[in-house]
């Protein structure tokens, strides 16, 4: 077989392997993924304010992201599947780029190149792949950087001046695209310059001073691009976001340089170990160890399929390698790969640690060092594992762990989105309209709320989907000690989130709770302070401060947009509970009992017994004591609920209307005396 055909077939095998492994890792749950975290202020901006306002959103730290977001929103809108598929394609292309880098550096090492691309594309410590909308910019930056490094190698290898200049220009352009999109990816230049140094002296990494000048000359286009970006970023760009502000980073070190440097060194060592070694085990242990049997079996089968694909094409790569004996015993390139990879990992972590971030496991901050870490790993395989098939087996074990990790991770994201969708649909059933000025606070079991926009983004998309002057109609806050104190004292504050103004009056707080996986969404009511046995203690303490009158029960119902939240879920128990709770807010006990009779006829039952209480009250107030007697034994199974209900109904006995006195007395007797 000619060298051209050999190279073409090798590339085809690598392409199939890398795209197949990426598909097994990232696509099995793709139809169940949705929107998360930072997606919500992006969705609010694109849908309510208009795509042109992405410029305001990102002007504070990454202005070029505005261009990418405007294009993405114009092309894909709210179709999260398209974002996921594009991110999958970008990650797989980056894997092909990693394969290309190794093939250019060591053309005879076909197996090493294949393992490089395969392990890099499933690197398990980057667990934000399912967060497709917000992380699309990360994928663009990473793919641009990988191919930028590959083009630098091509420029150094090509003897034709025109192509050399072209490759250098393309490489610099892709590098600038990367920096402008994700500035902390600039640390990946450590890998590029280690490779340039190696190419200037490919027989070994020795005589540093002798070859440093050649390295600088060969890297001048990239040095110019990187230097230009840094000059603009430091001296001209007005960065107002503290997390990416270079001045504040320097001031932190100047305040206590010795201590800061010592901590930085310790963090650098720890994070290097994380990225190079622990990345393949710790995320697996965190994410895959708690899978249910059915999901574990599915993940196991996907991982076995990945092993089968990698085994087959690795075997083909071994068969195609020339000079098998020589390549098997050759380790000088492997030693260099280890040193290049280690240097690349360390440098990639410097901007991250300098910016007060850490490459924890799993974390997006491990990703810039992943390319170097996998190169180092492939070098270790070659240097310390004597036979090709043994290297292949080790790579298959890592691929198995990685695919299993990604499946478990996608499952967690899918569950989070399922919970979020159900929560917002349930809130729309419970709250026809939320009053302007409301501050949402909550704890939703099964759904992360790391930032306030995880609540105010969806709420405004549902209840205030048109632009307004000034602050957001509905704001929110994360539940923490500070917000807890502000709610109790009824204070307020003003803030901006990505140029979006919020004005919060905590005397208008509405507390949301989903106490357990078995519970429906609960809108806490200070006038009826009855809490679930599963309720978070902080939410129980906030019950007297949750203003149910922030819900307008008589307004025209608002429906969550299906393009974002999906189609309305089936009307099961939680639908009837929310509608009954809404009717009880309106004191419409006829509607409560109608809903109660219907839900009993349908056979729906709650797993959180506090959810029976609207129906218990409705049946009692209308004199249907037979139904009350049917429900009370279930509710009273919980001593906590029985005691709460006794105290509450006793207090209400003196304030309810005359038409409800008999039913109220019956409830007091049922919960206090029997």
UniProtKB/TrEMBL annotation:
The chain crosses the membrane at residues 12-31, 80-102, 109-127, 139-156, 163-182, 216-237, 258-284, 296-313, 333-354, 366-385, 392-413. The keyword Transmembrane applies. The keyword Transmembrane applies. It comes from the Bacteria. Keywords: Membrane, Transmembrane, Transmembrane helix. This is Glycosyltransferase RgtA/B/C/D-like domain-containing protein.
């Amino acid at each position: 077989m000619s060298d051209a055909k050999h190279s073409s077939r090798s590339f085809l095998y690598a392409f199939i392997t890398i795209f197949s492994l990426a598909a097994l890792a990232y696509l099995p749950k793709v139809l169940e993924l949705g929107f998360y975290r930072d997606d919500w202020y992006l969705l609010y901006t694109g849908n309510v304010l208009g795509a042109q306002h992405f410029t305001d959103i990102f002007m504070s730290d990454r202005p070029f992201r505005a261009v990418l977001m405007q294009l993405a929103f114009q092309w894909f809108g709210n179709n999260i599947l398209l974002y996921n598929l594009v991110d999958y394609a970008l990650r797989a292309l980056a894997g092909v780029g990693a394969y290309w880098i190794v093939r250019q550096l060591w053309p005879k090492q076909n197996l090493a190149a294949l393992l490089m691309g395969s392990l890099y594309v499933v690197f398990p410590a980057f667990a934000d792949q399912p967060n497709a909308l917000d992380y699309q910019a990360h994928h663009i930056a990473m793919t641009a950087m990988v191919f930028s490094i590959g083009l630098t190698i091509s420029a150094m290898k090509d003897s034709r001046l025109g192509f050399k200049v072209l490759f250098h220009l393309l490489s610099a352009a892709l590098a600038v695209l990367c920096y402008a999109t994700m500035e902390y990816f600039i640390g990946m230049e450590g890998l590029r310059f280690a490779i340039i140094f190696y190419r200037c002296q490919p027989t070994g990494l020795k005589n540093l001073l002798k070859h440093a000048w050649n390295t600088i000359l060969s890297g001048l286009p990239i040095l110019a691009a990187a230097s230009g970006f840094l000059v603009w970023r430091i001296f001209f760009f007005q960065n107002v976001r503290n997390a990416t502000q270079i001045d504040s980073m320097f001031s932190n070190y100047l305040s206590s340089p010795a201590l800061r440097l010592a901590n930085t060194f310790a963090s650098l060592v720890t994070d290097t170990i994380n990225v190079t070694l622990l990345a393949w085990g710790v995320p697996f242990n965190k994410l895959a160890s708690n899978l249910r049997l059915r999901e574990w079996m599915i993940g196991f089968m996907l991982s076995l399929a990945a092993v089968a694909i990698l085994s087959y094409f690795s075997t083909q790569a071994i068969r195609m390698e020339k000079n098998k004996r020589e390549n098997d015993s050759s380790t000088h390139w492997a030693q260099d790969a280890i040193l290049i990879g280690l240097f690349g990992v360390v440098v990639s972590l410097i901007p991250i640690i300098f910016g007060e971030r850490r490459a924890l496991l799993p974390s997006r901050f491990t990703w810039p060092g992943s390319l170097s870490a996998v190169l180092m790993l492939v070098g270790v395989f070659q240097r310390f594992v004597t036979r090709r098939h043994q290297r292949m087996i080790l790579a298959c074990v890592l691929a198995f762990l990685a695919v299993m990790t990604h499946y478990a991770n996608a499952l967690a994201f899918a569950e989070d989105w399922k919970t979020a969708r159900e929560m917002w649909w349930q809130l729309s059933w419970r709250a026809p309209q939320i009053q302007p000025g409301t501050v949402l606070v909550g704890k939703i079991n099964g759904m992360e709320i790391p930032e306030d926009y995880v609540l105010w983004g969806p709420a405004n998309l549902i209840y205030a989907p048109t632009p307004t002057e000034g602050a957001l109609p509905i704001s929110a806050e994360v539940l923490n000690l500070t917000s807890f104190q502000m709610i109790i004292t009824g204070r307020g504050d003003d803030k901006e989130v990505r140029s979006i103004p919020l004005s919060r009056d905590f005397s208008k707080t509405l507390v949301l709770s989903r106490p357990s996986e078995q519970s429906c969404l609960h809108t806490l009511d200070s006038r009826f302070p009855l809490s679930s046995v599963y309720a978070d203690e902080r939410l129980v303490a906030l019950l007297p401060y949750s203003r149910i009158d922030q819900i307008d029960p008589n307004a025209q119902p608002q429906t969550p947009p299906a393009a974002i939240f999906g189609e309305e879920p089936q009307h099961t128990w939680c639908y009837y509970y929310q509608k009954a709770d809404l009717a009880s807010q309106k004191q419409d006990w006829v509607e409560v009992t109608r809903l109660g009779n219907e839900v009993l006829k349908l056979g729906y039952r709650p797993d959180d017994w506090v959810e029976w209480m609207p129906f218990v009250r409705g049946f009692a107030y209308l004199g249907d004591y037979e139904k009350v007697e049917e429900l009370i034994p279930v509710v009273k199974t919980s001593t906590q609920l029985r005691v709460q209900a006794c105290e509450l109904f006793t207090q209400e006995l003196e304030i309810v209307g005359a038409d409800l006195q008999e039913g109220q007395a019956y409830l007091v007797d049922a919960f206090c005396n029997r």
